Amino acid sequence: MLRVLMFLVPLALSVYAFIDCISTKDEDVRHMPKPLWAILVLLFPLVGSISWIIAGKTRSPAAEGWSGVRGGAGRSRRWVAPDDNPEFLKSLGEERAGDRDKDKDAGEDTGPGGGPGKD
Fold first, then answer.
1. Under a CB-based contact definition with an 8 Å cutoff, are residues 21 and 53 in contact?
2. Given its phi and psi angles, is residue 31 left (phi above 0), alpha (psi -120 to 50 degrees) or beta?
3. How far apart are the C-alpha atoms of 57 and 19, rounded to whole Å?
4. Cβ atoms 52, 36 nearer than 8 A
5. Model confidence, pTM
6. Which of 9, 12, 75, 116 lies at 20 to 30 Å from 41 by C-alpha?
7. Torsion of CA 95, 101, 105, 110, to 10 degrees
8. 38-41, long-range: CB within 8 Å, 24+ apart, which pairs?
9. Burial of 21 from C-beta contacts in 10 A (0-12 / 13-18 / 19+)
10. What is the C-alpha separation between 63 and 71, in angstroms, rounded?
C-alpha cells in the first residue's frame, strides 16, 4: 500500500500542477514564462510541481482559503450564490416591477369587458 501511495501522490501532484499551470492566465504567472513552467513540471515532476505551487503563480488572499470573506475593494470577485447576490436580487425586483407595469398597461387597453370599449 505504501508503495502505491509513493507513486500516486507525486503523480497526482504533478497532474494538478500541470493543469493549474496551463489553465492560469499569462498575467498571473511569475518568474518564468508559462511554457517554461509547464516543461519544468513535466521534466521534474516533484520539484517542478512544488516550485509551481509555491512560486509560479500569483495568488490572491481570497483564493488562498475559505476565509468566509466575499472580497472587497481590490480583491478578485468570487462566485456568489444567486440568493446571496444583492445585485441579482435587485435585478429581479426591477424585472418584476417592469412586468407589473406591462400588465397594468395591457389591462388599460382592453377595458373591463375584455375588449376595447366594451362594458
1. no
2. left
3. 13
4. no
5. 0.50
6. 75
7. 80
8. 41/14, 41/17
9. buried
10. 10
Q: Of all helices (H) and strands (E), which one includes residue 9? A: helix 2-23
The residue type found at 14 is S
How many Cβ atoms sit within 10 Å of the Cβ of residue 48?
Answer: 22
| Residues, the chain | 119
- Helices 34-43 and 2-23: crossing angle in degrees, nearest 10, is 170
Q: Which three cell numbers stand for residue 49?
A: 510541481
Cβ pair 18, 38 in contact under 8 A:
yes
Rounded Cα distance, 106 and 99, in Å: 10
How far apart (Å, rounded) are the C-alpha atoms in residues 6 and 59?
28
Could you state, in chain order, the average pLDDT of each consecutive group of 10 residues for the chain (119 residues)? 87 94 90 92 92 86 47 57 79 77 63 53
Cell of 27: 498575467
